[in-house]
Known about the structure:
Layout: H1 6-17, H2 23-30, H3 34-47, H4 65-77, H5 83-90, H6 96-106
Helix pairs in contact: 1-2, 4-5, 5-6
Amino acid sequence: MRAYSxxxxxxxxxxxxxxxxxxxxxxxxxxxxxxxxRKILRQRRETGSIAPRPHGGGHPRAFDGPADLRLREALRxxxxxxxxxxxxxxxxxxxxxxxxxxxxxxxxxxxxxxxxRPSRTAPS
Length: 124
């Protein structure tokens, strides 16, 4: 979700300072929540600024360049390995969903190909 514009922040704070209504009325007029108004006023009181704060950043990737290479090698060596086995082979401690996302990001597919000829009598 993107931060509200500085213009909107200034108009909401100005309306609160001018006491143009209750916070509920101001929130409905500008289509924001009352909790957001409380937050922006608290931020101004504590920091003196109503500018949006920088993004927190999130978690770093579990698989960096060398771990990506180890994962590629592990997938070549054993294409039937589970996600936990692949993480162990790559030397990374992470959740299975991170192991699943990495081959997708690298463009590696794990779909099995059919081993034999299709059946003539059964649907394939």
